[in-house]
Amino acid sequence: MAGAASAQSVSANYQPIEQIRDPTLRLLQGDWQRNRILENMAEQFSRRFSLSQSLKIGLGECGSPNAFYRPDAKIIVLCLDLITDLAARLSRDPSTRNLDRESVQNIIAGALVFIVFHEMGHAIIDLESIPVLGRNEDAADAISTYLILQEPGLAESGVAGGIFFFSKPTSAVPGFFSQKHMSGEHALNPQRAVNLACAAYGKDPARFVWAMRAAQVSNERAGRCATEYAQLDRSVRDLLRKVIR
After folding, report:
1. Distances (CA, A) of 79 to 6, 59, 72
2. For the chain, which has fewer Cβ within 10 Å, the N-terminal or C-terminal residue?
3. Backbone angles phi, psi at 30, to 5 degrees
4. SS3 state of residue 188
């Protein structure tokens, strides 16, 4: 039964700092610990969700830029490598290279918001045995998108960060996708960006018209976004009615 776990159902876990080999990542983790970023995240999730089992959010060095949910350990793992990779991508991208420090931090924070909420989607599906039709990754994207759009202070940065995150090419040749790409468990990055932008636009067209341009959503798809968001809203609220406080 949802809500059986204690009020603080989500807890923060850091990799022991002496185990982190990369000095840059060691400093980054030190900053997160001093500012209690992971603890604040865990507290917010505990207030937002009523989970039937305890969940951990962990931060540490992974050896590759990644984030994932481990159902065996009931933990969302956020890799320090991912944070530095996002910063490096921003510095290389001609469209963002000249942004000021605050703007860069906002984009990175927004991307991390989408990523962490995506992994929270995986966790909720696992912990609460939520039924899923289609690919699990698509369901986690849908949950993440919905949850972000319900947070007034996170919605705009989460959508912008998510679109930026999906701007990373999935193919070395623009527009070319191999059978490996087509067989992947995730939708193609351009599709994920369009789905995110369409949901945001469907909820609030005036606020998120910029997202449609950023994700290059077609006019034909734009005409269906309001209906798509209404279905997303109805479906997620019904599936997670015992989970969302």
Report:
1. 27, 6, 18
2. N
3. -60, -40
4. coil
The predicted model scores a pTM of: 0.89
**Whole-angstrom distance, CA of residue 49 vs CA of residue 244:** 5
In single-letter form, the type of residue at position 131 comes to P
Residue 44 falls within a domain, yes or no? yes
Place of tokens 């009931």: 74
- Domain residues for 160? 10-239
76: Cβ–Cβ under 8 A, 6 or more apart, which residues? 55, 56, 57, 58, 67, 68, 69, 116, 119, 120, 122, 123
| pLDDT tens string 197-244 | 999 999 999 999 999 999 999 999 999 999 999 999 999 999 999 999
Q: Going by DSSP bridges, is the β-strand pair 67-70/75-79 parallel, antiparallel, or unpaired?
A: antiparallel
Burial of 56 (0-12, 13-18, 19+ CB in 10 A): middle
In a domain, 4, yes or no: no
Report yes or no on 3 lying in a domain: no
